[in-house]
Amino acid sequence: MQNIKLSLSSIVVSLLITFSGCENKKEEDKTPQNIEKPYIGQSIMVIVPTLHADLIRGPIMQEAKKFEQKTGARIRVVTPNWNDTIKKTKQSLEDPNLHYDIFVVISMWQGMLFKNNNIEIVPQWVKDKIDWDDVLPIYKNSILSYDNKAYGIPYDGDCINLYYRKDIFENKDIQNKFKKETGKELIVPKTWSEYKVIAKFFTNWDWDNDGKVEYGNALLRKKGDVAMLQFFATAAAYAKHPNDKAYFFEEDTMKPKINNPAFIKALEDYKELINYSPKGGVNFAGNDLRNSFVTGEVAMAIDWADLGIYAAENKISKLDSNQVGYAQIPASNQVYNSKTSKWENRYNQVSSISGNWSIFVNKDSKNKKLAFEFASHMGDKELSKELVSTSGNAVNPSRFSHFTDFEAWTKSGFSKDSAKRYLDEISKSLTNKNVVYDITLPGAGDYYQAIDDEVYNFLIGDISAKEALDKTAKKWEEITNKIGRESQINYYKSSLNTNE
Q1: 250 and 319 share a domain?
Q2: Does some domain include residue 21?
Q3: Number of DSSP helices (H) and strands (E) in the chain, helices first
Q4: DSSP state of 283
Q5: Are 341 and 257 a contacting pair, CB within 8 Å?
Q6: Which domain holds residue 51?
Q7: Number of domains, the chain
Q8: What is residue 31's predicted lDDT score, i.e. its pLDDT?
Q9: How far is CA 450 from each of CA 223, 230, 383, 476, rounded to the nearest angstrom?
Q10: pLDDT tens digits for 262-320?
Q11: Cβ-proximal residues to 330 (8 Å cutoff; 6+ apart), any chain
């Protein structure tokens, strides 16, 4: 009997050991899987607008799938239209039942994110992961920072430059014709006055001998689009004083500068230049502008860095990269000083980094670590190098490393020489200390909408430039008063990183 008991005990012990081993084996199977995929069972929502084709959202949707496979997380990417993105972002910040963990926003939308302290500061481990030191100072100290604290993760870097037909400008017959008609040498314009003369010269004749009439230039002007960002870039030479960081408003009062003599002159120039554009130029969107340049319809264009890669890589482009010239946005020999209310005779070359897209993490995210992991994935140094040298996603250079790897650019259709020229001009823009940023205040969309409406009325001939900008200034004052002048002053100073 004792032997039977011992046998039964041995069997029980043996079974316990066996089951224990099975459990341990199950744990061993699970553990490495969890290490490899640490976010199984967790999910986040990302909101990014639907733009033309796959611009901005395309890479995010593609990378979300790769990130899910790698980490086990669920990344839901929501892509409303432009206006619905604004509406849903506002709702998410106010309604706990509609919750986005990551906001991918153009810089003009940043004010609504900061209005109620909704955004998490970028932690040091994220900075280390994305190589924060590689991000250009002009971005990490302005667009990505607010009140001298880093809140944004870099995705797209934007600057607006001049593009021109290098082959046409170097054509001896055209140079002689220009000299005969204008008494001047045909050179790449350094000022808006030179630009206007050249744009007029190239308008309404067949300068490339293709049997079609061509034009001088193309500008972005479609109402309700982001045309005002380009207007402010072109106005900067007259209106952005190099000794004054504030551009849109007086820093201490929020009084609009928009109807001062500099902006009035810029708006009058703007209308004149549309006369030297293809038919329908008053309604050009970004795609229209780029197509008109790469198909040989215009001699010059003002655009973001998208146009360079578009000309080199897009299938509809009739140009090779060696036919394209790159230059700084034109300057002026006069600049208006709003503090003294006087014009100053000085050369004023201003860069514009309007339009940047950045990534922000919601402070109320329930999966904040995961949100920062995906945000840092999209801001990854090597991924960004791939994106900026690929046409069709609107992701432009924002890092030191984007300017050193010519191989990535030559794979996209640039010759080594054209890639160097392209990147050199972008680099000049991004190292210029006299620079225009976007309005990033609460209500920024309302400020832009007000001027967009009045500028359009001026361009179609209903009112004068002064009347249009006087009406804009009045609307801007009303917007400021409605939101709260004192709070707007504080936000404006914070956006300029000038708060004490």
Answers
A1: yes
A2: no
A3: 20, 15
A4: G
A5: no
A6: 43-158+355-404
A7: 2
A8: 34
A9: 11, 15, 38, 7
A10: 999 999 999 999 999 999 888 898 889 999 999 999 999 999 999 999 999 888 999 99
A11: 162, 189, 190, 191, 192, 194, 195, 234, 237
